[in-house]
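Researcher: Here's a chain I'd like modeled. Treat it as a single chain, no partners, no ligands.
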Amino acid sequence: VLGPPDPEAARTAVGDTKFPFEFEQYRCANVDALFGTDLDEPAIQLTGAELTLRAMESGGSTVLVNGGRAKVAGWDELKVDRGTVELEEGTFALVSLRATTPLVTALGKPGQLTLTTARPARGDKPIALEVQIEDFPLQTLLGPELGRLVGGVVSSPSGSVIADPRFIDSLEARIDFAGTMGTLVRFPFLEGLRTILNDSFYAEPDLGKIKGVYRRNRDGIKIQNFEFESRSQLLLRGTITLSVEGDLEGTLQVGVPQGLMMKPLGGKRFEAFSDPDNGHCWITIELSGTALRPHDNFTTILARGANKASEGGGVNDLLEDRFDELTK
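Model: Modeled as a single isolated chain. Structure tokens:
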């Protein structure tokens, strides 16, 4: 256990690195290690790793970590590439850890995550780790629920993870990400767009450019400053939140090309959308429900706009048919 609840017992067992035999290093295969004092919900868990212990000239010991698997609280399990831990006065302190995703991403290679700290992070004190990700699956950060709605392959040169292993649910993370291969699925407004624009692309837009700020704390997961652009046919910007209880919330501005929304002789096909702005017409929607059953108010807003347009005789028969199909 890294950073055990009883440091004195660990010091007695290790004997301040006075080993019974004089070897330059000690190696142990297939080690399970927990970082934190909560054995049921550790901040970081290593499984099946190989540890090599080497004495440092300055005192204490360095432990090299190779192979095995790593589980950071709230994230999917990763494959350990390598890492470093310091051993001093009977306690372990995490220095760095590099891990990869078990499967290759849409770019054809595993995603990579690196955790480092300027000051060794002990399991019995608050820790602050720097995070770097490269070609990393966004679904792994978002978890199995929110990750079923939003996907992509993202990178970040700098992020942070702060936690106090002495307390459950203390982990806080912030990662500014940007990437490609973005996907959106299962949101009701996507099917709504497919229906009114008569284009199957809108049901599951893919190959999108994606960026935002990933944040996680004891309240849940949030994607702030979210931006999504797919093939110049769909633009999104806003915030998506999934609470720890599983409730989905958020506000999204949805933009489609003005050529699809404007009539040849002027005027909008759907009053719920804005006038053209930088080549797109926009509608703002609210998310609700859960990640398993997401909801939004796209149809409600569209209906209000349709009623307004019908009062002025501004909706043609073809669009009325498509709207009726959407609201059945």
